[in-house]
Amino acid sequence: MAGNRDGEAPRSAPYVILLCLVAVAIYWASGETNQYLGWPPKTDNTPARIQARELSVAPGGAFRGKGAILLAMPLKGAAFWGRDLFPVLYFKHRLALGNDLMNDAEVAGIPIVNEYGHWISPPMLALLAAALYRPEDFIDRAAQVPRAFRPNLARLLGVSLVVSDDPLPHEIELYRGTVADRPLYIYRIAGANLGQYSPTQTVVGARAERILDYLQAPNFDGRELAVLEEPLVAELVQGEGVSVSLHKGPRIRVLAYSRRTSLLVLPFDYSHCLEVDGQGLDRVMPVDLSLTGVVVRGQVSLEISYRYGLLKGSTCRKQDLERIKALNLEDAATGRLFRDSRPVKSAVPGP
Questions:
Q1: Per the omega criterion (within 30 degrees of 0), is the bond before 40 cis?
Q2: Nearest 5 degrees, angle CA 64-CA 70-CA 76?
Q3: pTM of the predicted structure, to 2 decimals
Q4: What is the CA radius of gyration of the chain?
């Protein structure tokens, strides 16, 4: 017994040494990038205070829009996350401000349109690309490079604040400065979709290619026109008194009124897994490729939540996948919105 105990120390020594090396590496990385030692993020700087003032929302508070972080905008040619955005966010912004202005913003209750990649559905990824990406840039599900600003689609997505490293001359400037030798601007975006977009005209696109044709048209205006995947047989009027608030759960509460039938285009991702309770609802449908459309009548009071899993099951997620395939989204987006990074299929010689 004693011999066995004596032999355990040498066998565990490599693991102890490995853990010590990992701890040292994390500490060293912390000193270089402030990713670990700088928690919680600091909000005692002007850019972070502006973000909070404009967008921060507590449970039960009114939705005021989303922020977008657009970096490497002046860069010519293709951009890469690891080379052109990550070093700025973490080696410069976070060291200088104690806040990376993107991931850290969400800690302060600030909705950011640059969601962590693994949470973005393919339709939302495509709409984000149409609004904020450049087709020559490399992206994947975890690392996107938003560095373009197409106002009509950005507003449709609910973007009401932009942090950028290049001027946006037609927007309302709230901040102009330099952070760790990099230019930094913050703009308020007037007219963003906070749930009040209630178009009265519709067109139908059964495939993603056709939907993108409508959305990417220079004169597309989501306030007036909705792109649907199935016809909506109804004479639409604009919804009135629309308000959207965010609640724990998470849940989205929508209050509105419609004299007849109205379509509200909410700047939140559509899914078959959405559950909608309340009064005034006629139907829920995808609009503009990835947004949630609710067709309503009369006095409207709705609560929307996203549910799937052990109790509800995952059939709704399968329906989402089937919809993506039916839209032929991958072929429509590749090369048009994203650089084609799919492996080349080599021909298999016949017998």
A1: yes
A2: 160
A3: 0.86
A4: 23
Query: Across the 351 residues of the chain, what is the mean pLDDT of every consecutive 10-residue run?
Result: 50 80 69 57 92 95 96 93 89 89 88 81 94 89 87 98 96 96 96 98 97 97 97 94 94 97 97 96 97 98 92 90 96 88 53 46
Q: How many whole angstroms separate alpha carbon 328 and alpha carbon 207?
A: 6
Question: In whole angstroms, what is the distance from residue 247 CA to residue 250 CA?
Answer: 6
Residue-by-residue DSSP string for 81-118:
IIIIIHIIIIIIIHHHHS--SSHHHHHTT--BSS--GG
Give yes or no for a contact between 300 and 256, defined as CB atoms under 8 angstroms apart: yes
> How is residue 200 annotated by DSSP?
S
DSSP state of 61: P
Structural domain boundaries of the chain?
Answer: 60-188, 201-333
Which residues, including other chains, have CB under 8 Å from residue 346's CB and lie 6 or more apart? none
CA distance 226 to 71: 30
Please tell me what DSSP assigns to residue 117.
Answer: G
Q: Which H helix or E strand runs over 171? A: none
Terminal Cα distance for the chain, rounded: 66
CB of 332 closer than 8 Å to CB of 212? yes
